Amino acid sequence: xxxxxxxxxxxxxxxxxxxxxxxxxxxxxxxxxxxxxxxxxxxxxxxxxxxxxxxxxxxxxxxxxxxxxxxxxxxxxxxxxxxxxxxxxxxxxxxxxxxxxxxxxxxxxxxxxxxxxxxxxxxxxxxxxxxxxxxxxxxxxxxxxxxxxxxxxxxxxxxxxxxxxxxxxxxxxxxxxxxxxxxxxxxxxxxxxxxxxxxxxxxxxxxxxxxxxxxxxxxxxxxxxxxxxxxxxxxxxxxxxxxxxxxxxxxxxxxxxxxxxxxxxxxxxxxxxxxxxxxxxxxxxxxxxxxxxxxxxxxxxxxxxxxxxxxxxxxxxxxxxxxxxxxxxxxxxxx
Length: 335
Hints:
Layout: E1 4-12, E2 18-19, H1 20-27, H2 33-40, E3 44-45, H3 57-71, E4 81-85, H4 96-105, E5 112-116, H5 122-136, E6 143-150, H6 160-165, E7 168-177, E8 184-192, E9 200-202, H7 213-217, E10 223-225, H8 233-248, E11 258-261, H9 266-276, H10 287-290, H11 297-307, E12 316-323, E13 327-334
Parallel strand pairs: 4-5, 4-6, 11-12
Antiparallel strand pairs: 1-7, 2-3, 6-7, 8-13, 9-10, 12-13
Helix pairs in contact: 3-4, 8-9
């Protein structure tokens, strides 16, 4: 176990919550509310642009990071590593983490920054990288890892499903060194299938498809769903990855005190917990309050689980995230 532990958590979601009833009024769209509420489990969300709030990814990430730093009892100048996990960056370049560093530390510092862009698995992969970097570089005393999402910025005005599901938000953790054997980072299990790159994504704006008048005229900008995702993908993947991760460290499902999954579908989480043979009391879901916040959802759910007492010091926690591409990341640690 690496002697790296979570010292603080933070969360940020812009503006007043938007319930489903108000979403209909704000967008003028019709939604399949039965599916949204009873299957996906989404009853409200936060969206900056629907509230007229001039904030985007870097704003969300900075505020979540500052909240986590304060929770850890530190100042911004204490941080030596900042990693932002997102597939909705402030800019293509420079990296969003660089902007966050500038806003927090406000000058040139001996701080390492980089982004992880692995769709909705970005935070879990960033967390894994941060723990391993800190374990090999004793000069980095504290790190901030942020998962952040601003997919509503990429939605078309007529995308009823997108507006019902995707939302804005960010979660962050501060990492430090553990002086005891009771807390630490155990490890991860990653999985990738790049043959699935053309299922869903934001394809315009990169080198393959620069944003041109033709792209805009043919409505190819923003979030595109090019082919349907396999309906059972996460139900198949998550238990498989959980078991492989636990096997790697000679542990069993019952050795885990709390599970947190990508918050995209409440019914899928329920089914996966049943497959694992674990009660729902050992997981936390937040999509009812926040909608789907992509790379932000796992640290946001972890923040709620900690602050509400469902995760306590000494608990063994497993984080599981998957997203388009296909990318899957998981973390196992003792809080």
